[in-house]
Amino acid sequence: MAVTTRIRMLDIYRKRATGAYRGTKLLLLTTLLSSLGFSLIGYDNGLMGGFIDGPQFNRVFGFPRADIKSTIVAIYEVGGFVGAIFISFAGEVFGRRQSIALGAIIMIIGAVIQATSFELVQIFFGRIISGIGIGIINSTVPILQAEVSPKATRGLFVGMYCSTLNFGIVTAYWLDYGLSFYDSEFAWRFPTAFQLVFLFLILILTLIVPESPRWLAAHDMEDEARKVIGNLTNKEETDPAVVDQFNDIKETIIMEKAEESGSWSDFYKKDGLQSSRRLWTACAIQIFQQLSGINALIYYAATLFQQSIGFDSQKAGMMAGLLQTWLFVASFIPWYLIDRIGRRPLILGGIAVQAAVMVVQSALIYQVEHETAIKHTAAIGAAAMLFVFEGAFTIGMQSTVWVYPTEVLPLGLRSKGSAISTAANWICNFLVVEITPPAIQNIGWKTYIIFAILNTSFVPIVYFYFKETRGLSLEDVDLLFASDEALQRHDLAVQQVTAEKNTSNFLELEQLERVV
């Protein structure tokens, strides 16, 4: 049975590897698949914030308390955490493409449950199911994109995610805002069901795009890996560029096997590839993204404009939409920067500005809450600071947070490490989303001091601990971290494999001559 299944998988990948799409078209289709996955993340991030306080939603569920509503929003992050943990175990078995398809199917089920909900328990369940699906998707699409993108523009392709993610956020906000004028359940059921459009497109694309050549090579499907590389580069399998890229991948697999990289023990053991350091770096950047306070702004922008700044509900909704529109527009800036100035400068600059903004914001909100003589001016300044913060975030942290972990992780740990770092993202997201409303209500302006301290603490960690990966192939990143001893073991392993291959070829030739 196992042999039959293996043969069928090989046949599927062989057909997919020799498909009709080649070169730029194939790369763009893969990018479209990944971008839709991130648009969906953004859409779900912005979805609930636009109608959770509206009468159309609250009438159906009996006007739940504020803590229950915050849990309705935050429980999605728990599902994302569970989905990311699940795919950390199963992702290397399923492969990149099938993992994405599985996540989309699970999300379809969750979206239908949410859109048809009439009880709190039903919408809780639907939010968790959808969260599991999105946890699987956003653990996997950055890996697929990074493993098929050219090294010179990999940052651009993966960095496009922040624009598509922000497009999803702004779409959700304006759709919610436009439908808020309709006094019926349609105002929240339609936006909830609208995510099915993204999901069905994702499922269609998983039937078209190929599997990652690096995953194929790591699972002994070498012929298929060469064909996919040829299709992606629009070259024949025997082309020197294709052969060189495939050999680089194989040598990396050999080196990681020599270092016994790829197991869960790599989280704490010391090896020649610094696997532990690289795993924790991938987790750290995802944690920093969430603890910066960005999702307090995205999920609760309208609430912040009302409770912290003092706008009425209509003006708060419009300002929240404008804020997320600015987030989308600003996200195009790093397209030009990420492969020119690198990852570290963008991260460091963005975090430094975020820390400064939070300091200023706490002082301005203090003026508003204590109704000082400059209350009105301070409210305008506080609103402006939200725009500055989101601009700094999308240019710095957001543009790099999905490309850097996939670059820095070893091939053998890329699926596990990406999933675990994404799980860290989701659980910290849950923490921020859950505590923000009561924090704003109970300690007010001091909430922003907490985020100021957190952002400030990230700067020295990034400066001293993060390495630059701009312009390097994924295989070269291993060499960036490898010790001298690991490089020597790598060379010996390559020589041994080459010698064994030459001996095998000689024996085959000798046998053929005897037959002739």
The biggest sheet, with number of strands, parallel, antiparallel or mixed sense and barrel status, is:
none
The percent range for helix content is over 70%
Please tell me what the overall shape is: globular
Radius of gyration: 25 Å
Work out the number of β strands: 0
Run of helices and strands: HHHHHHHHHHHHHHHHHHHHHHHH
Mean pLDDT: 82
Tally of alpha and pi helices:
24
Spans of 5+ residues with little confidence (pLDDT < 50)? 9-18, 504-509, 512-516
Task: Give the DSSP E fraction (strand runs of 2 or more residues).
Answer: under 5%
N-C termini distance:
37 Å
Class inferred from helices and paired strands: mainly alpha
